[in-house]
Amino acid sequence: MKIREIKIGKVSIPLKKPFKTALRQVNSAEDIVVKVIADSGEIGFGNAPPTAVITGDSQDSIIGAIRDTIGPKLIGMEVDHLEGIMTVLDTSMLHNQSAKAALDIAVYDLFGKRYGLPLYKLLGGYRSEMTTDLTISLNGPEEMVRDSLEAIAAGYTALKIKVGNDAALDIQRVQAIREAVGPDILIRLDANQGWTPKEAVRTIRRFEDRGIGIELIEQPVKAHDFHGLKYVTQQVETDIMADESAFGTYEVFQLLAMEACDLINIKLMKAGGLHNAVKIADMAATMGIRCMMGCMLESKIGITAAASLAAGKQIIVKSDLDAAVLLAEDPVVGGVSFDKDRIILPDAPGLGITDIKGWQEVR
Ligand SMILES: [Mg+2]
C-alpha cells in the first residue's frame, strides 16, 4: 500500500458555548483535515487545529507546511515503511508540529486499515474505553458554578476548571464550585500559565488549607519556566501537571530529568503526532510519571487518535478529551463514540472513520 495523493481541506464547527481560558476565547473550532489517499483507494484521515497561542501554528502555516514541504516527500512511500515515513516527517522541516501531527495521524489510520486492526490495539490495546472530564471555561463564579452543575447533570464525574487570570478570584471560583458539586466530583484545575511561581504556591496552599480537594493543577507557570514549575511542584502537596511546558519529546525528557512535575499532559498537536506521543508515554512510564491524554479544540478525528493512544498505554491514566462534546455539530462519521463521560473506541480498522461532512478542499 503506497501513498498516492494528499488532499487538504477545512471544516468549521460551531461551539455550544464560547471556550475561554487564561490565554484566549474562541466561538468555533476551525480544523484542517487531511486525507492521505493510498494506491488501493483507502483514505487515512488526519487533522490539525490551528492553535497559534499554544503551538505557534496558524491555518496558513499548517496548510503551507503540508502542501509545499512535507506532503510531497511522502508521495510514493510504502505505508508499511512506517518508521521511514515518520523519519521524513521529523526531518523534513523544523517545528510545525500540528502539520506533522495531521499527517502522522492519517498515516497511522492507513496502517491500521492495511492490517485490519483498530488503532488502539496497534498502540498497545491496554483498555477499550475510558472516561473524560469536561472543561469549565473561565467566567465569573456564578456562571462557572452553573456550568459545573450542568456537567454533573449530564453524567460527568470529573471537571477541569479553567483558572489563572486572577488568583484571588480563582479561589472564590473553585470554592464556589466545590460547595455546589459536593465532595465526590473530581476537580482538576488548569491555570494555563497564568500565575508566577510564588503566586502559584500561595494560591495552591490556600486551596489546600481550605480543604477544597483539588486532584491536580495543570501548568501553573509560564511554559518555558521549567525551574519555576519544579519550584511549585516541590512547594505544594497537590499534584502538578506539565502541559504547555511538556511540548515535544525533548522538553518532556528535560522535565523528567529535572523531576519538575508530577504528571505529563500529552497532546498530539504538541508532540507532532502519535509516533512522538508514544515516545513521550514510554519515557514517562520509565520514570513512573503518570500521564493524561489531552486535546485541542478539534474535530473527532484527533480525539479518536488521542483516545486510541490513551487506550493503548497503561501509563495514560486520565483523559481530557472533551473537545468533541463542546462542539454543536459532529461532522466526523465513525470514530469514537460517547456515552455520558465514557469514550468508547471503535472496533473498525484504523480510526474507524469513513467520512467528514462539510469538508472543503483547499488547494
Ligand atoms: Mg492545559
TrEMBL record:
Enzyme class, first EC level, given as a word: isomerase
Gene3D superfamilies per the UniProt record, alphabetical: Enolase-like C-terminal domain, Enolase-like, N-terminal domain
Cofactor (UniProt): Mg(2+)
Cofactor binding mode and count: Binds 1 Mg(2+) ion per subunit.
The EC number(s) this enzyme carries: 5.1.1.-
Family: Belongs to the mandelate racemase/muconate lactonizing enzyme family.
Protein name per UniProt: Dipeptide epimerase
Organism name: Acetonema longum DSM 6540
